[in-house]
């Protein structure tokens, strides 16, 4: 998936968020914005030297982080990148090109960045400033190619907000999003946020018990977004093996999960998905189907979002213990 440079101007500004650790049922008091700083520490002896060597990135780590060829067998297409014959990422499709020194749109975009209070506001402003420019191109990660301009993307995000509002998501509620990067992921994430909720995100390849923990720990409000049928089948298999009901997706605040949205069909028919729903004992819906049937969110249903509201909860990998939920607020 690639997002145009125009979208990135606004999206990058939202990364300067206030950061706190998430505690279920408790919102910690405001703290000053935290900057991420990497400090180097001198190695003092041989023991520390060996430790430093052991913690260095492997070639496999570098391949994943920096785009080299990886030997891993990935389950999901978002973890692979098409490459040219020379080994570079395939950037053959032209995205928006802007002359940052002279294009008058650049100053307008800087103004948008400076006046935003939350990310969902971005789409309406960009739809007004540059409606016909390409906003989003995803040729490989979804069930079908997705190619949207800013006007279309604004409508899609508003329709996504209706999907989640109809499922009961509103200001102060969280939704677990267990899936990989794709255009659908972006639509889900911003739809949750426009409805007033916060996404609690983790990749689909995380261990099943870790995904269950994240749903519980994030106080997800009866709704989980899942990558697709393959991950759903893993959840079903794990629940059967461990004797868990409702796929093990539950928490004290909202009880068992009520609805699971599949981001992707992965070539499964309606009949296939109905069988999975019966096996799981949980209502299963396809996000794209709900999106197609939805109307843009009515303005009367759209909450006001300020700097003190949670935008998203990003979970760590949990390699040294339970995953930690890091709350990012709309404070830019």
TrEMBL record:
GO molecular function, one term: ligase activity
Residues making up the signal peptide according to the UniProt record: 1-21
Pfam families: AMP-binding (PF00501)
Keyword Calcium in annotation: no
Domain named AMP-dependent synthetase/ligase: residues: 130-328
Domain of life: Eukaryota
UniProt-listed Gene3D superfamilies: N-terminal domain of ligase-like (3.40.50.12780)
Residue ranges of the TM segments: none
Keywords for this protein: Ligase, Signal
Keyword Ligase part of the UniProt annotation: yes
PANTHER family according to UniProt: ACYL-ACTIVATING ENZYME 16, CHLOROPLASTIC-RELATED
Entry protein name: Fatty-acid--[acyl-carrier-protein] ligase AEE15, chloroplastic
